[in-house]
Amino acid sequence: MNTSRVVLVDLRGGAGGLPSGELSGGVLVLDNARSLVEHADVYLSLVGENMVTAVVCIAIGEAGTDNALDGVVLTVPPALQHAAVLWVGDPEGVDWAPENAPPRPVDQPGMGLVHLVAALQMPALFDRVVAAAEDAPAVAVNPGLRIVSSAADAVELAEARAAAVRSLCTMEHLPPHDLGASIRQTGPLAGEGAVVAGPVQAAKTEALRRLGHVAGLARVLRTPKALFGSARPTERLGTQVTWAGQAVENYRLAVVELLRRMDGHVQAGRPAVEDVVELGVQRPREANRAELAADLREAVDTRLGEGVPLPVLAHELRMVAANCGPQGCATDLDQVTGRGPLELAMPAFKRWPLTLLTLPLIFLSCGVLALVLGPGWPGWASGVLLAAAWFGAGLLLLARRPEKEAEAGLAAALVPALLAYGLTGLAGVVAGVVAGRYVTGQVPGGLFAGDLLISELVGLSPVTVGLLVTLLIVLCGTTIVLGWRGAVRDWRGALRVADLENAVADLTRIAEDATVREWQPLHRREAIATVATEVAAGLEEITGALEEAGNRLFTIPPGTPASGNGLASMARPVPQELYTVIRGDLADVCRGALEPAWPAAVTSVRTGEGVYAQRLDRLLGEYGGDVRRNGLLSANRFGGDHAPRDALMARVWSESPTALAALRTEAGGDMTQLCRGAQLGYLSTSAAPGLVRFGPQRLRRLLEQEGVHRGLTADPGITWGEGGEFVGALRLLPLRTESVRQFVGGDR
Amino acid sequence: MTGKTDVVRCRYITGELKEIEIEGHTEFVTPGSVLEQRLVRVNGKPFVCKYVSRAAGARNPRLYDLLDNEIRAGARLGQSYPDRYPRELAQLVAYNIDAEEPFALLREYSGVPVAGPAARFQDAERKQFERALFRLLRLTSEAGVVHGAVTTDALRWDNGVLQLVDFESSERVGELRRPGAGAVRSPEQAAATGVVDARDDLWAAALLVRRLHLGPSVDAQPDRRHDPDRLRGLLDPVLGTTVEHRPTAAELLSRLHGDNHLPSFVDPEARFAQGRELFENVARGKAPARGQMATAGRAQSTEDSPGRRRKRFFPFLSAMLLVSVMVVASEVIA
């Protein structure tokens, strides 16, 4: 027989009926001894019930015959032959040790029957008593008991409950805890793969292409292609620079528009997703709400287990909703908007690519050539040629200067080139011719030297003159080339292509970051906010309900003294452990009340207002009922964590030597025999009494863990039952055969 | 204002004086109102009647001021939006402040106090609430009205539509700030210095938005460093600056992509603008003459004083000479 539950049926009230509903498991019946026969049909139906595993009948009082001398104290109907009958002659009983001590009044009046009934509701003990009663050589047995209770004091229970409610409902300022960190991250991070395509990407490509083109033109500018030929970069450089700047600005505007649409959708639901997607981002990824809810549930359970008060947890969840929910990209939008307008400024090209510092060189070179090759026509002719070359080079460089839209052009460059380079060269020629004539006059016989060159007159060889002229021309050519390249270098240095390329990179980074951070996980963010908000709202409602309904739990019965419940044998629980147990239980009750939040969060169907409060109220009632029936130390559906109960049990029993003594009680030891002293004569002294020792399974585990009292834990005579707050021993003394009359019907 | 049906005289906000019949007197309570309120019917339509009973007025004369604030704000708003009155604001219809029990008659409020549903708002509703809140503050600030007590008590929620009611602590922009004991007042309002600014209400609104997102426990945590970036970006310019540097409700509304357009708005001051301008012109025209007169007057007065002193001195000197001559003559004769 393995009874799972014991139902108490009290037939003493006069109703004489069974409770409504189908009975199952073990049935413990309380009845007056005089009513047994009257309730015969009830017992018959009980023992015949298929789902009833066993019946224990506690018959209270005497039910003899009219003849006081026949020694009959109990009359049982036939149906009770299939039940265990415990005869209680007197609910208070007498303290008695059959082998050692005579009967005497009990120390705790009025508690014997109460403890017996409470202990017999432990299924394991119930089964053990049924078996012992069957083994007894009599129809009925008289129980003696020695029981120690660990039930908590009502006042302390109420105080611990009040402290636990306060602790759960107080808004403490704990260090910030990021509950959102416990939610698994999914999806790519910023920078992983291209996230923006379409028009925005096209604008970026165009901007980079145009910037690259400008950079290419700038590179070509230092080569002869810039000066000669029909495809000169200088022709369209200014326009290209402007277009490149505009392309970058277009890209910025495209990013602004993308961010604005994303932000608008996130913040206000406008524009539609399609309007955002058409700019080149993917649709937001679908979110796995169930997975998010599971992650958050685990985090919430962990925090509750850590003892975090409900308002703190609600605040943490609100922070999760606010932090992990859709944020929008207003900051990014401000940043990108603040960077505009972007443009690529066209740097001013040097006004004089062939710098005016070369004018002395032009003057001198033309003059020296006219002088060296003078004084005849070769001198001035070569000087004029060199001056023309200077003029031509200057004109070319001036004409090829890139300006805002196009190159300066020959017409614009003609007059400045003529005035600056041409006239300087001619002045040099004139100066050379005049100097030649002066030198010719100074050299003896120079005026009559005929076709001799001045160089020859001064003794220079033709090779030296040729070398000198060549050097002079190379110098002039080098000066011209270096002048142009220097101007190009300065111009390229002022061209901010790299800055704009960096700006494009920054814009891309901002757009991609915002997309990856806000847009792609939009549904995920919404789901997290939904789940966290639902749970936070639930916790806030539960907090309010617990503050009010929690005070109805474990109320102190009227007339209860300030401390103690009058039981000398009650091991007084330690308030701290008691508080920990109750707080843990209430946290589990709150966890249970929060249960509807999770499916609601997954389905986005909001729970109705008051649902959590009602559920909490109901669960508190169930919890209070469980504790009332089975005691606080019994495992109930709310005490998920066994450690606090084990700790409470350890403290209770370690400080209660009477508990262990009760477990060691022998059959002949001192117990409260539930009859009057005068009724002891009805008990058989020849038959061996049955002895049932019992204790809660939790105590056995505790003793095993601590490695103490190994004899007790290994004792097969001790029944360890789940639940219950009692430890002790039951002595079942059979009644004498002649003291029990079998009722066969008709004769009462 | 007693009995089941009362005939009372009242003035519409258009200035029209009329007699109306008020039926039904169901007690009505809103969390943001100190005044006594009833739900009444006029011509079969429901209205909220705020009033100060004789007994309540005798106990607390300040109630008359609260009713006065309600009427002034309601009248101003009604004059500012005469054609399409925004349903986001409580609408004053008529009032009588000369009666023994002065009252204000407002159109029936919509929805329920927002405190209840707000606790369960989802993210989208919170954002909707933000936009609606800043929009109605845009409407009040445009009309030059500062509510003075923007809390959940004064806000009602009706399926996404927010309504601001109970203007009992309201002030008018440009007036001197009044000292008050409202629960949520900006530093400038709490100090009761300077003049009322249209952005005064934004402080309370910002705190309300913060509370909405972070829960009621956040009221005890003024440190905003751990607030989400979005909230900091939105609220720091309001809560971290003085009123002069605070953004306007319209700017905040733009940032939130809210509806920033105004219903047809009439500046109540505009009707007096022509007369005021005429007065200013006349005043300016008279200013030089008056200045000259004043200058002349001052010159006159500066000249008069020594002259008057000389005039007083001359008879005195003459008298002294006459006395001296008489004394000398009497001595000579003697």
Give a brief description.
Helix content of chain A is 52%, strand content 10%. With 748 residues, chain A is an alpha/beta fold. In chain A, strand 6 (94-97) and strand 7 (101-105) form a beta hairpin.
Radius of gyration of chain A: 55 Å
Strand content of chain B: 15-25%
Q: How many beta strands in the DSSP annotation of chain B?
A: 11
What is the rounded Rg of chain B? 31 Å
* Most strands sheet of chain A: 11 strands, mixed
Strand numbers in spatial order across the main sheet of chain B: 1-2-3-4-6-5
Give me the number of helical elements of chain A.
24
**Quantity of strands of chain A, as a count:** 13
What string, H for helix and E for strand, traces the elements of chain B in order?
EEEEHHEEEHHEEEEHHHHH
Assembly status: heterodimer
Largest sheet of chain B: 6 strands, antiparallel, barrel
Q: Poorly predicted ranges of chain A (pLDDT <50, ≥5 residues)?
A: 562-571
Verbal overview:
The complex is a heterodimer of chains A (748) and B (334). Chain A starts with 5 loop residues before the first strand and ends in a 6-residue tail after the last strand. Chain A has 24 helices and 13 strands. In chain A, helix 6 runs antiparallel to helix 10. Helices cover 52% and strands 10% of the residues of chain A. About 1% of the residues of chain A have low confidence. In chain A, strands 1, 2, 3, 5, 6, 7, 8, 9, 10, 11 and 12 form an eleven-stranded mixed β-sheet that branches. A two-stranded parallel ribbon of chain A has the order 4-13. With 334 residues, chain B is α+β, with helices and mostly antiparallel strands. Chain B has two domains: 154 residues, 2-Layer Sandwich (Phosphorylase Kinase, domain 1), CATH 3.30.200; 144 residues, Transferase(Phosphotransferase) domain 1 (Transferase(Phosphotransferase), domain 1), CATH 1.10.510.10. In chain B, strands 1-2-3-4-6-5 form a six-stranded antiparallel β-barrel. In chain B, strand 5 and strand 6 form a beta hairpin. In chain B, helix 4 runs antiparallel to helix 8. At the A-B interface, helix 6, helix 9 and helix 17 of A face helix 4 and helix 7 of B.
